[in-house]
Amino acid sequence: MQKIVPNLWYNANAVEAAEFYASLLPRTSSSIGMYYPSEGLLDFQQPFAGEPLVVHLDVAGYRLSLINAGPEITPNPSISFTLQFHQKFLDDGSTSAEQVLRQVWEGFVRDGKVLMDLGAYPFSPLYGWVEDRYGISWQLSLAQQAEPAQLLTPSLLFAGAAQNLAEEAITFYSTLFEDSAVGQKVYYSDPTEPVNASSLMYSDFELAGQRFSAMDSGVAQDFTFSGGISLEVHCRDQAEIDRLWLALSAHPAEEQCGWLRDRYGVSWQIVPANMSALMNRPEAYAKLMKMGKIVIEDF
Q: What is the pTM of this model?
């Protein structure tokens, strides 16, 4: 079971978005993971009664969860998703990885916004960064490794209030999860505002055996991390929930339903691994809405 599942926030169109991604990305499918209850909702949630709440997206074996909600929160490029195109992730050999990359790029660009043009760069023979029609950012690249472990990798961009904290953050995160490690680190060769001598141009790391990447922004940005993309951690028991909550919680006044924001501004959802089963209990949704940290025995 994937321990850390990125959650993406959508403005009442998560089902539509999931269908779009499934039609565009290789080896990708979607399914409804959870529905809103028909009663017990807060006033602003009433329009969603009985509608899908969570839509699961499986991208070549990697799960994303799409949250079907309102306009209260929006994603931004502080967390994007890198797609490393390699022949191993394609269904057959009739189409090359480059052809698939270009097809996906055209799909994302349509009604989207280009952040970095698709082309050759020193770090990749073909790379581009785009924000899709739903506000989700994607980095597309031809894989350089012989056998990349994941088609999809969450990528954290430390900017704004989190500028130049990438190295500190990934070192901290790696202490929290088993089967974690910090990989390569590439520093900016010529530090200029807003980066300094300790700023990371790129780093990769693993948390719970899953690959992530991080970097400090090389230019000043007017955004930083938001709840538009959060990292949901499936915990084995209450003790693990308590441990991670204590380590990550930095804004207690904002905490609700297992959500918290850490010292760098990254949003996390610390939930029990059997959350779906708990939510099937009587009045579970109403009980969840009253919680900050999740307490399993209170369901």
A: 0.95
Total H helices, total E strands in the chain: 6, 15
Q: What is the pLDDT of residues 184-220, one digit of tens each?
A: 999 999 888 999 988 999 999 999 999 999 999 999 9
Q: What is the dihedral of CA 279, 284, 288, 289, to 10 degrees?
A: 120
Contacts of 70 (CB under 8 A, 6+ apart): 11, 12, 44, 45
Instruction: Quickly count: other Cβ atoms within 10 Å of residue 293's Cβ.
Output: 19
d(CA 199, CA 191): 8
Count of Cβ atoms closer than 10 Å to residue 245 Cβ = 19
Q: What is the Cα–Cα distance from 233 to 244, expressed in whole angstroms?
A: 9
**Nearest-5° Cα angle at 20, 18 to 24:** 115
- The answer to whether residues 215 and 166 touch, using CB atoms and an 8 Å cutoff, is yes
- Are 158 and 195 contacting, i.e. CB atoms less than 8 angstroms apart? no
- Three-state secondary structure call for residue 124: strand
What is the set of domains in the chain, with CATH numbers? 4-72+229-298 (3.10.180.10), 79-216 (3.30.720.110)
**152-158 and 79-85 strand pairing:** antiparallel
